Amino acid sequence: MSRAALLVLADGRFPAGGHAHSGGVEAAVRAGRVTAAADLAEFCRGRLHTTGLVSAALAAAAALGTDPVALDAAADARTPAPALRTAARRLGRQLMRAARATWPSPELDALARAFPKGAHQPVVLGLTARSAGLEPQDAAYCAAYESVGGPATAAVRLLGLDPFDATGVLARLAPELDRVADRAVEAAREVRDEGRLDALPAASAPLLELTAQAHAGWPVRLFAS
Amino acid sequence: MRTTSGVRATARVHARRDGRGGTCLPVLDGEGPLAPRRTRGTGDEARVTLVGAMSGPLGGDRLTVETEVGEGARLRVGSAAATIALPGQTKEEARYDVRITVADDGELRWLPEQLISAGGSDLYVTTRADLAPGARLVLREEQVLGRAGEEPGRLTSRLTVRIGGGCVLDQELSCGPGAPGGWDGPAVLAGHRAVGQVVVVHPRYGERMPEARMLGEGAAVLPLAGPAVLVTALAPDALCLRRLLDEALAVLERD
């Protein structure tokens, strides 16, 4: 195993299509809820501890070898807004294409066959990490970081925010990212050891669900979600 | 009874078809602060009202309400007043667990009043509904953060719905002091003080699901991945929240 694979996987230039999604920040900007770096920090913090934690746990569980089909169903149950399920599957399919080209494995092939329209992205991410020889913790970090990295990058484009400020937001969230990744791995181990999928966290963000559904109906938008 | 470590109490309600076209309640037990009373029903639907016999839940309390609806029975459960989570003498969190099972062709309308998280309280609520594939459910939950003008307590609420053993909804909301960061920020609640859900499960959704739709900016009808629909709503206060949820329910019942 090479730890450097984590850098390749977590790199924003990894061709998995994430740049087309704002993680809900486009809707928050339009509603006037995110106007500056301070709001962006609170947005990212809230997303990290909800969607981010759930994604990180799903990714860690997939990396640990838990049945990805069962994890995909758990992701569905934790994603009530159809717009977000669609986005997660689209992102999962794009990541799958990149992953199979980069770290081919029979497990990735099987998941791609089971979900031709795409499995939930965090599940694909976890299995990708596993195929790359990475650890569950790496998968958790990757998912947790994505949950805030996406909105921060999108906010730079949407608000003309100073990229130094947006990066500062991410850097200051680092200790919380550590805690979220740890909790995610702990939950993933519980799922494996006790065979209970409900050990996966289910933290939800009502506004992200509501605004994602509204955003999907906008006639013109910069980001897909 | 209440001790220094809090109250442990369980209420049980079992609804069964009475064989004469109605619903009977062979089990209707309360304990401590939980007092279920049979109230006047309509048609073949039995009605139970949860009456709070003491204040609470307070810190350290562990309250459980178990409701079982048998094949073909119809039950509606409400409450006489809002439930107010209050701080207790211990620093321990309180727990409130709602366990629901509905058999094939059974129907439960679970429509209690709001849960209010008073300043300084610490409550963990879990609601779990296990439904047979042919069961029907309307379940409403409303959380109000703080009494008028008050900072809320700590509240975590997890709602899980299974149909035929498969989980179709698993959602947890954490808010108030000590909740993970960002809970009141622009991704989660953004200053809204009332948040609610209605889950509707009906066998007809197996054939045709309602479409997703927004009801203004504060509420949405969200078809789930299984044969169930979630209405989720955010509002400045309890009154506006109830209005949104009632409107959504009316839309769904017209479908």
From TrEMBL, chain A:
Protein name (database record): Urease accessory protein UreF
GO cellular component entries: cytoplasm
Any one Gene Ontology molecular-function term assigned to this protein's record: nickel cation binding
Main location: cytoplasm
Keyword Transcription among UniProt keywords: no
Homology family: Belongs to the UreF family.
Keywords: Chaperone, Cytoplasm, Nickel insertion
Domain of life: Bacteria
Automatic annotation (TrEMBL), chain B:
Region Disordered: start-end pairs: 1-44
GO cellular component, one term: cytoplasm
Pfam families: UreD
Keyword terms of this UniProt record: Chaperone, Cytoplasm, Nickel insertion
Span of the signal peptide: none
GO molecular function: nickel cation binding
InterPro entries: UreD
Localization per Swiss-Prot or TrEMBL: Cytoplasm
Family: Belongs to the UreD family.
Biological role: Required for maturation of urease via the functional incorporation of the urease nickel metallocenter.
Official protein name in the record: Urease accessory protein UreD
Species of the source: Streptomyces griseoviridis
